[in-house]
Structure formats: structure tokens, C-alpha cells
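Annotated sample (chain length 186).
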Amino acid sequence: MAETGTREDGRTPGDGDLLRPAPDGAVAGHPADASPQDRSPQDGSPAGDGERRRPGIGEGPGRLIVSLYGLFTVAAGSRSIYQLIAQYDRAPLAYLLSAVAAVVYAFILVTLVRGGESARRIGIACCALELAGVLVVGTLTIVTPSLFHDQTVWSYYGADYLFIPLVLPITGILWLRRAGAATTAA
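Output written by the structure step:
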């Protein structure tokens, strides 16, 4: 049996590698096995005694946000591609807005996964753009429904999607601001 924390070929496990259990039953190389002094904050500086590391942008509750943005990127993107190809003449404005929503979701997804200060700032701007889009399109679908001959992701404030398009950018902004405050405080 290879020593704890190494693979059968002798290399140290990296991200995505399957880890084998250590002799004591713990998973070798698992972050929970690291002692507090071995853990470091998101910026890579050594952690001090008793200091707890806050989750990064895509960690902890951020993983749910990342998952939802991934799901909405695929859902809005595939829906808009189909509608633009097969039904463009029926409601071009609605289908183009769904495509724009998919692109915004993709940008936010990339910034959440990438992390870092510049990605965080771009993510906040994209979330604000998304929120503005949801509010404008949602209001227009109520005030002037004849403008939209078919639903978009943002129609009626995302009612067809359980209002997640309305709540998600607010949650995203709050999470990204929290992550920025965590790195500023560190």
C-alpha cells in the first residue's frame, strides 16, 4: 500500500483525483484532515492561529449559486438557440432577450468559478445588469404585454421559473460583496 496522500503511481493527488482512504479511515489529502495552521485564506497567505478561513466565491453556499447559474445558462441558452433557429419570426425580441439572459448567466458563472478580485467586480456588474434586465422586462411584460409575443426567462419577473431570475442576482450580489469583504478584511 502506498503512503498516505499518494496515488498508486507515487504522485500526490491533485484536484479531481480519486483519493484512497488512509489506514486510519480518513481520506488522505482531504481539506478536513489539514490542521488549522496548514489551512490558508483565499488569498494564499498563511492562516494565523485560531483564524477561520471564509469560503471562497464558489465554495460553501456559493456552490448553490454557481449550480443555479450553470443550470440557467444551459436552460436559457438551449431554449433561446432553439427558438432563434426554429421560431425567430414568431417573437424575435423575446428570443433575443432570452439569448442575452443566457450570455449574462454565462458571464456570471465564469466569474463565480474563476474567483479573484477582478472577476468578483465583473460578477457584481453582471448581476446588477441581470437584475435590471429582470426588472425592466418583467415590468414591460405586465405594462405592455403586446410587446412580447412569447415568454422570456425574465417575463413577469421570472414567474415561469419560480421567480429565481429575480432572486438569483440579488443573492449573487450579496454573496460577491461578502466575498469581497472577506478578502479585504484578511
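Annotation: Residues 61-185 form one domain.
Annotation: Confidence is low (pLDDT under 50) at residues 11-49.
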